[in-house]
Amino acid sequence: MSPDSLKVAEWVSLGQTSLPLLGSANIWVEDTLANDLSVKVTQLVMLQALQATAPGQLEMTVFDDGLSGLAAPFWPLNSGGEKILHLLHDQQDFKSTLRYLRDHVQGVKNVMQGLAPNLVAFRNEVDYPVEGYKLIVVSTDFSALDEQSQFDLSVLLKAGPTAGVSFIVHSMTLGANPAVVASCQYLKVERGLIRHDDGDTVGGWEPPQPKHLISLSRKVANHLATAQVDPLAFTEIQPVEQAWQNTSEDGLTFAIGRYGLQTVEITLGDELNQRHNMLVTGAVGQGKSNLISVIIHSLCQRYSPAEIQLYLLDFKEGVTLQPFSDPATGLYLPHARVLGLEADREFGLSVLRRLFGIYRSRMKAFKEAGVQDLRHFRHLNSGQPMPRIVVIIDEFQMMFAERDKVSDEIADLLVRGVRLFRACGIHVILASQTIGGNLSLAGSVGEGLFGQVPVRVALKNSLAESHATLGPRNDAAAHLRAREAVVNQDYGDISANRKTSIAFADESLFGRLRNDWWLDSRGQSRPPFVFAGERRRSLADDLPTRTRPSHQTQATVLLGSRIEVDAHPLEVPFGRDIGRNIVLVGAGEAVIEIENIALSLAVQRPDSRFVVLDCLEANASWDNTHAVFTQAMTGLSADLTVVPRPEVEQFIANLAGSLPQRQDAQDLVVIGLGMDRIRAMPAEFPDLVQTGPTSGVHFIGWWLKLDAFREHIGYGGESAFDIRLGLRLDAQSAKQLMSDPLLDWKPADNRMLAWDSTELPEAIRVIPYSLLDPTLVDTARAQT
After folding, report:
1. Rounded-to-integer distance, Cα 768 and Cα 569, Å
2. Cα dihedral sign for 711, 713, 716, 719?
3. What are phi and psi of 196, to 5 degrees?
4. What's the pLDDT at 236?
5. CATH of region 537-783, choose from 3.10.20.30, 2.30.30.40, 3.40.50.300, 3.40.47.10
6. What is the dihedral angle through the alpha carbons of 370, 360, 409, 412, rounded to the nearest 10 degrees?
7. Does CATH number 2.40.128.20 belong to domain 3-226?
8. Between these two residues, 766 and 658, which has the higher pLDDT value?
9. Which DSSP symbol is given to 555?
10. CATH topology of domain 232-532
11. Which residue among 43, 201, 222, 715 has the highest number of C-beta atoms inside a 10 angstrom radius?
12. Which residues contact 102 (CB under 8 A, 6 or more apart)?
């Protein structure tokens, strides 16, 4: 540990005289109304305390009830990236701060456990900046404070300094209890001279000038912004020499940081105290992602993949989970079963459904074994390890961002899950920047959810978020420094607070550990299912995941990728039944989606004939993909013809007339691109799409507008299109297209609405095929 990180202003200098301060003493500066030098003395002590203490290790709180302006030159302190100057605005703020300081002082003394005379000595002994120093500057008429405030202040003046809380009181002593003044070093300015409480005169001091104070405050802020703070190393709380030494039979224990001399560990699956689930909160930039990474790596270092499985979801950028999956090198976190990068609500719902499936399966096994929980099952079946499961959901509140059927089902499953999963060894860790202002978590949902989460870890946050996380009277998270957290394992009870220094998630170390874990698990662990919600997909991505086609089976079409765990493509039958046509309505990558659907048919039925009705003429999407699409069709030995725009109407009329002679002909797939551009659709078109499928003629068409589609097919013509797709379609049009007035749908990037009226009870969201992969032919050949 760098000695500079432990540097503290144990002494301050006034001219040629040194006075003790942080760690041992307070200072009382007599407020002489006729002379502003008492303010300047106070400012000089404040400045020296800041300059002589390591960056970030001292917070200064000012209560200027006398409006002396003593804090004004120090406002630049907060420009260094961390707020170290706090101004209390009224006596209510002051009273609240005194109450907090009483709890803080008691907490620091609990950390020191009497092992050192004061916080300075304790820090030097443990060689780590435990807790932090606080300088409280009070400029007021002490005698005008209410009785409770005077009492609290008098207690803190006596007990605070050894716990790192020192005071500078700028006030008249008139009316003040002499015993209170006696607990401080007394200074009085008379005729420019500072007199000490022992009567000695402090000479050789120069009153600081405002410009000088402002300049030095800026230097302190700049130093704070650029200073390198020694973090708590992960290896100090978690040994890394030998991995996988623990069993999860009786629970899962992991380390996150240090509380004084003690390593802070949390156990999930603690049957004695019924601690099974955990909540983590913290404002932006306060280390939530760092903490989650520490939790994961501590668990994975202690327990093998046979003892623990991880389901990890990130509802923001996915940066925290990105290192756990590297397809380029083939390295994965072997404990992970699911990685939800940029997860969306439908995928989160799918994970919860999967977990309930595991829950039901395990409870059935317990019943057959005559036990009630995982611990007893493991005890009886030592040769059949059943791993505990930890579900970590970062920014979980995003699953409730919209009130609809999806969020309602998520709320129901999550609330039931945190209550029921404990018996079968599934534990939930919920993390969020904010829960206090989320209306969806208010009422019965929030009560049912958080009432089952006894373990609360709160990083630095606002007062409201501290109350939301820890309880209505627990404001401890609002007073933390960076890299600190309040760990509370008793539903937020104030007496259970432990202010913990969180270990640093060193990616250089973690990367080596993950590499070792993956190599040690080769042949035993499979890569996790990785859901990257924003990644665009092609048909080639999903061909290897489906059942190998057989020419004896009915043809199917692949419409897109399902949004679920171990997602298979949305695949629907496409035989000679009435209604086996496809309509796609909307904007976006519609042409590419249509082309991929046609290619999915060509992979199975290369003997089919394909005709493209090119109504687009000059269209960038069609022009850019035409060559690749044609080449892929040729590579699959498919018969492809393109009908130019001027010949489209005649082709439709001729095809309709030929239907009676087509009973035994090869299948014909007609692909209509940009059908809106046909002003007057041939009268035969509605009959063509209605009766065509039974003759092997299928229509796959794209209309930009729903009204144009309806006009072309006529009244009741939607029944000829069992398969309906929507891309960037407005909510009202989506309800009409999918025949569902209660449909919840908002157009979104890389999402498509899909419904097969004969196969699906309702429309679902899928990831469309928005890429045309040139390697498709090779993939298809390997698959067939």
Report:
1. 10
2. negative
3. -85, 165
4. 93
5. 3.40.50.300
6. 10
7. no
8. 766
9. P
10. Rossmann fold (3.40.50)
11. 43
12. 152, 155, 156
